[in-house]
Design goal:
The protein is 43% helix and 16% strand. It is of the alpha/beta class. It has a single domain, classed as TIM Barrel, CATH 3.20.20.70. It has an 8-stranded parallel β-barrel with strand order 1-2-3-4-5-6-7-8, surrounded by 6 helices. 43% of the residues are buried. Bound molecules: 2-phosphoglycolic acid. 2-phosphoglycolic acid (PGA) binds next to strand 8. The site of 2-phosphoglycolic acid has 13 residues, from strand 8.
């Protein structure tokens, strides 16, 4: 079964506009594997400017968050309609930093997923456990319950279009990476859940990315696992050379 390979960059709240433009231009100028979709999730302030820069077809833009609301009195929020109007095609939903610092619940994230789909944005839905949950051995049920909690109102057609990113919180920005075996275990459990809930035709096409201290030194081994279809990369995506090394770590 052919699943898309995806290398997604999560710049988080880093770079000013000029730095973001410089980084994006460097990336667009590199020789990139053409069978890998590259999603640059830049700060919202940068997305329009980046959309005006010509780049290879496989490089597309993503937002790091969006509102579940359509429009109106929601000061500071960014809507799906705003994002699509500037050519953004992906949106990260439910990053652990949004869950932890902005109290985003499974239920709210379910609403955001619905709103993203209604604007034809592809959500990169993040899930993952904290260290205490990993230590007490309930990480699989925790992650599956995050997925169940946010997917419950999605139609099978919507689930078929989603991208999932498994990001163990203890591995994000810490330099500590899940082992390729730990990533594979969780990814295969997620796929098993999708098969049980939606059938294998759907579960076989949903890309599941790993995130958490992905670096040029560990990407190849992680990406070689059968249920790992790419990465969501934070720190190492802020440097064009290291991100391009990660992009070239498939196969
Ligand atoms: P990291 O971040 O690669 O810096 O660990 C990943 C993420 O939070 O998406």
């Amino acid at each position: 079964m052919i699943r898309r390979k995806i290398a997604a960059a999560n710049w988080k709240m880093n770079t000013n506009l000029q730095e973001g433009i410089d980084l994006y231009k460097k990336l667009c100028g590199l020789t990139l594997a053409d069978d890998v979709d590259i999603v640059i999730c830049a700060p919202a302030t940068h997305l329009y400017a980046l959309s005006q820069i010509a780049g290879p077809e496989q490089v597309v833009l993503g937002a790091q968050n969006m509102s579940n609301e359509e429009s109106g009195a929601f000061t500071g929020e960014v809507s799906g309609r705003m994002l699509t109007s500037i050519g953004v095609t992906y949106v990260v939903i439910g990053h652990s930093e949004r869950r932890a610092y902005f109290a985003e619940s499974d239920e709210l994230l379910g609403l955001k997923l619905k709103t993203a789909f209604s604007h034809n944005l592809v959500p990169i839905f993040c899930c993952g456990e904290a260290l205490d949950i990993r230590k007490n051995g309930t990480h699989v049920s925790h992650v599956i319950s995050q997925i169940k909690g946010s997917f419950k109102n999605l139609s099978p057609d919507e689930v078929e279009k989603i991208v999932i990113a498994y990001e163990p919180i203890w591995a994000i920005g810490t330099g500590e990476t899940a082992s390729p075996e730990q990533a594979q275990e969780m990814h295969s459990e997620i796929r098993k859940h999708l098969t049980e809930a939606y059938g294998s035709t759907i579960s076989n096409v949903v890309p599941i990315l790993y995130g958490g201290s992905v670096k040029p030194a560990n990407a190849r081994e992680i990406f070689s696992k059968p249920d790992v279809d790419g990465g969501l990369v934070g720190g190492a995506s802020l440097n064009a050379d290291s991100f391009s090394a990660i992009i070239n770590s498939f196969n």
